[in-house]
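Help needed: design a sequence for this.
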């Protein structure tokens, strides 16, 4: 009976210890999830503001996103298993996308994964999505008749794709980069077609105007 009682007490202690660890991890997860939601929401607003030339709003939201991201990273620093479940990766990816879109549109140097304080896989996927996001800004420039700027943006997309397509590692290491690169390639094909047609139309328009003037 004494042995059984000691075993029961030992099991109770072990169970309490396990529950304490799980409760701490659960609280960390809930807190980090909330912070990551804030990151994604702020980054979405920032990107939309960049397209609308609302520079102050974009900068404020990117700053807010960074604050929430650092908080989530700090909360999960003692819980590597939770950090690897995906939601932190998604938040980091969105942060990279927002920062990269801003940098490319405003002619600033791109931040690397160390500069932005994110994991390599999140940086790669975020950069890929930022390149895809350039299509929207490029089309706006085309509508405004700024074909030179549109071509510059397309060259940026090509440069990024040229680097990312050479990265050939398992998805477990790159966060599913291949899927993002495939999506970027499809975006580039559509963009190239749109840009080519617009440039040809512009050249034809110039020739017609010259012909009418000479006639």
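Sure. Designed sequence:
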């Amino acid at each position: 009976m004494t042995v059984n009682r000691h075993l029961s007490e030992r099991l109770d202690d072990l169970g309490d210890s396990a529950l304490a660890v799980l409760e701490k991890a659960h609280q960390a997860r809930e807190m980090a999830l909330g912070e990551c939601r804030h990151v994604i929401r702020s980054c979405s607003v920032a990107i939309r503001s960049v397209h609308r030339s609302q520079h102050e709003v974009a900068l404020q939201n990117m700053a807010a996103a960074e604050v929430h991201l650092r908080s989530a990273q700090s909360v999960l620093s003692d819980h590597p298993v939770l950090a690897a479940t995906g939601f932190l990766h998604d938040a980091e990816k969105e942060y990279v996308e927002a920062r990269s879109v801003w940098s490319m549109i405003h002619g600033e140097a791109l931040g690397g994964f160390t500069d932005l304080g994110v994991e390599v896989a999140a940086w790669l996927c975020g950069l890929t999505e930022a390149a895809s996001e350039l299509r929207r800004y490029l089309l706006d420039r085309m509508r405004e008749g700024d074909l030179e700027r549109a071509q510059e943006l397309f060259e940026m997309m090509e440069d990024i794709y040229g680097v990312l397509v050479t990265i050939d590692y398992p998805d477990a290491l790159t966060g599913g980069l291949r899927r993002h690169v495939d999506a970027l390639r499809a975006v580039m094909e559509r963009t190239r077609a749109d840009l080519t047609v617009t440039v040809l139309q512009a050249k034809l328009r110039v020739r017609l105007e010259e012909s009418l003037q000479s006639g």
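The chain has a mean pLDDT of 91.
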